[in-house]
């Protein structure tokens, strides 16, 4: 079983695919899945995107560095929103972010983060990498290395990485394991190459799972052979 886990969720995990805002149904699902692993006493960090609010590249009339700042703020909004939802469901969590100074947002300090984990809090890392021109996949890789995670679990809506598009080809085969070298060479789109490269350099594996199959997150954390593992 993994003991230190960084979970990367897209903003759409809060709104439903292609949606904006927050969906009660999605939040209930998310809380249930998190509750299953929270009781295992693991140290859990979460990086959440902002696709349900703003994605920089969707704001066509904006300079990208401006649009990306809105995106990063969106990740803080999502983190605070999630903190509130967790709280209502008896799950202790704390939001840390290097980009905003608000009463409910703590600064990103490694020593404090360790203390939050020790005290049983889930740490919600808001604000992306704090730089425009990046995505929350890269932020997830950074924070995973910083928190010394055993695994970065990327929550997706696909069962893993395939050798070809399973929607188009019946004989498409899912990889159980691939290397970073292969993932980068084959331009596997499931995660940024920046994220792959940070994880590869720091000997951290990424597990791509279908988060929307009930129980998959628990299986992933327990080390069951699901999804696709990207290995160094
Ligand atoms: N963003 C950024 N720097 C970062 C992380 C995020 O500028 O380090 C911005 C960027 O505009 C991005 C948006 O925040 O589109 C939301 O993140 P992302 O697209 O990764 O969200 P997701 O698709 O996972 O919901």
Automatic annotation (TrEMBL):
Residues the entry annotates as binding ATP: 8-11, 51, 55, 156, 162, 165
Catalytic activity field: UMP + ATP = UDP + ADP
Superkingdom of the source species: Bacteria
BP term (GO), one: UDP biosynthetic process
Enzyme class: transferase
Domain Aspartate/glutamate/uridylate kinase: residue ranges: 3-210
GO CC entries: cytoplasm
UniProt keywords, alphabetically: Allosteric enzyme, ATP-binding, Cytoplasm, Kinase, Nucleotide-binding, Pyrimidine biosynthesis, Transferase
Positions bound to UMP: 68, 129-136
Stretches the record annotates as Involved in allosteric activation by GTP: 16-21
Main location: cytoplasm
Keyword ATP-binding recorded: yes
Cellular compartments annotated: Cytoplasm
GO molecular function, one term: ATP binding
Keyword Cytoplasm attributed: yes
InterPro entries: AceGlu_kinase-like_sf (IPR036393), Asp/Glu/Uridylate_kinase (IPR001048), Uridylate_kinase (IPR011817), Uridylate_kinase_bac (IPR015963)
Pathway the protein takes part in: Pyrimidine metabolism; CTP biosynthesis via de novo pathway; UDP from UMP (UMPK route): step 1/1
EC number: 2.7.4.22
Activity modulation comment: Allosterically activated by GTP. Inhibited by UTP.
NCBIfam families for this protein: pyrH_bact
Family per record: Belongs to the UMP kinase family.
Assembly description: Homohexamer.
Function text: Catalyzes the reversible phosphorylation of UMP to UDP.
PANTHER family recorded: URIDYLATE KINASE (PTHR42833), URIDYLATE KINASE PUMPKIN, CHLOROPLASTIC (PTHR42833:SF4)
Designated name of the protein: Uridylate kinase
Organism: Petrotoga miotherma DSM 10691
């Amino acid at each position: 079983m993994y003991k230190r886990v960084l979970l990367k969720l897209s903003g759409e995990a809060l709104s439903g695919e292609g949606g904006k805002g927050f969906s009660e149904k999605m939040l209930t699902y998310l809380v249930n899945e998190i509750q299953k692993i929270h009781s295992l006493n693991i140290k859990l960090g979460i990086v959440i995107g902002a696709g349900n609010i703003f994605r920089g590249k969707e704001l066509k009339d904006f300079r990208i560095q401006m649009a990306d700042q809105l995106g990063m703020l969106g990740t803080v909004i999502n983190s605070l929103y999630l903190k509130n939802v967790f709280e209502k469901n008896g799950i202790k969590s704390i939001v840390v972010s290097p980009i905003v100074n608000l009463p409910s947002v703590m600064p990103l300090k490694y020593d404090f983060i360790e203390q939050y984990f020790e005290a049983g809090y889930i740490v919600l890392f808001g604000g992306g990498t704090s730089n425009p021109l990046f995505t929350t996949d890269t932020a997830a890789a950074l924070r995973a290395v910083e928190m010394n995670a055993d695994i970065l679990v990327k929550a997706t809506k696909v069962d893993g990485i395939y050798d070809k598009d399973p929607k188009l080809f019946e004989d498409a085969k899912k990889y159980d394991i691939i290397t970073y070298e292969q993932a980068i060479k084959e331009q596997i789109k499931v995660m940024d190459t920046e994220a792959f490269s940070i994880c590869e350099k720091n000997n951290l594996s990424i597990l791509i799972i279908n988060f929307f199959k009930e129980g998959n997150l628990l299986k992933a954390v327990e080390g069951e052979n699901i999804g696709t593992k990207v290995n160094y």
